[in-house]
TrEMBL record:
<keyword id="KW-0560">Oxidoreductase</keyword>
<dbReference type="InterPro" id="IPR036291">
    <property type="entry name" value="NAD(P)-bd_dom_sf"/>
</dbReference>
<dbReference type="InterPro" id="IPR011032">
    <property type="entry name" value="GroES-like_sf"/>
</dbReference>
<feature type="domain" description="Enoyl reductase (ER)">
    <location>
        <begin position="10"/>
        <end position="330"/>
    </location>
</feature>
<dbReference type="InterPro" id="IPR002364">
    <property type="entry name" value="Quin_OxRdtase/zeta-crystal_CS"/>
</dbReference>
<dbReference type="InterPro" id="IPR050700">
    <property type="entry name" value="YIM1/Zinc_Alcohol_DH_Fams"/>
</dbReference>
<dbReference type="Pfam" id="PF13602">
    <property type="entry name" value="ADH_zinc_N_2"/>
</dbReference>
<dbReference type="Pfam" id="PF08240">
    <property type="entry name" value="ADH_N"/>
</dbReference>
<protein>
    <submittedName>
        <fullName>NADP-dependent oxidoreductase</fullName>
    </submittedName>
</protein>
<dbReference type="InterPro" id="IPR020843">
    <property type="entry name" value="ER"/>
</dbReference>
<dbReference type="InterPro" id="IPR013154">
    <property type="entry name" value="ADH-like_N"/>
</dbReference>
Amino acid sequence: MKAYILDRYGKQPPLRLGDMPEPVPAADEVLVEIHAAGLNQLDAKIRDGAFKPILPYKPPFVLGHDLAGRVVSVGQGVRGFKPGDEVYARPRDGHIGTFAERIAVKQDDLALKPANLSMEEAASIPLVGLTVWQVLVERGNLKKGQKVLIHAGSGGVGTLAIQVARHLGATVATTASATNAELVRSLGADVVIDYKTQDFSQELSGYDVVLNSLDGTALDKSLKVLKPGGKLISISGPPDPAFAKAQGLNIVLRLLLRGTSAGIRRKAKRAGVDYSFLFMHADGGQLSKLTSLLEAGTIKPVVDRVFPFERMNDAMAQLDKGGAKGKLVVRVR
């Protein structure tokens, strides 16, 4: 099958279009013909080598964490899917590779595609949708009447996070450029902070949850907007000891991550705030809950641009450039 292959780690190396062996599904796996694949910052970070200590993929391998497609065949232990089903997924770590024509996916990572979405729209959802669910619902325990700050509201995570937070009944603040203010308001943001002209830490206070996807400066400032007992949840780091333990990392990496996160953990403790790092995990059950919200029209995908498969490297270059409103997607089939 055709696939885009990473031959070596490096600073933005191009992916090579080549042939890879046909995937053969195990007993608990589903073979999926990929119709569309979403792009994520995680793809770029893995490509550049930033995640080698945590996700030690050995080149050559196929990148890609989001897919929408059609079931070709199922393993003998699979019960919830059959050939012909339209599905979407974020394959689990160690089993990625959606920048390809086909992939074998664990059945527990898979969900039926929302009936009202195109393949391209569906492919934009899994990784960011699961990230949002795990931050706001699973860990943030966001409730009606609470206040949440979502950084980078016009990005892939931000556009969905605003909608899910609104659905949960929270008051939603977000940071965005003036150019994107109308977009984030249309998604449900109550307060929009122009990060170019305003300091969010001077404008906001008494918040219950902050979803951080920005740098260390924004992370530190986010402590100021949270009330005592609030939760600062970062998807951009630094990873904390709880994450290192959950990943089963060796003692050297555990000590390293303990050290890199020590500063923000100390500051959070002084502020009476809970800091945690979240690295999302695959979960077909949670994805099915998002399917219900998507089919009801409660949340909707935001796709900036769709590239043809043969322009995968152009899509990756656009990802590196930044500034997309929502997600970038590649049409594979």
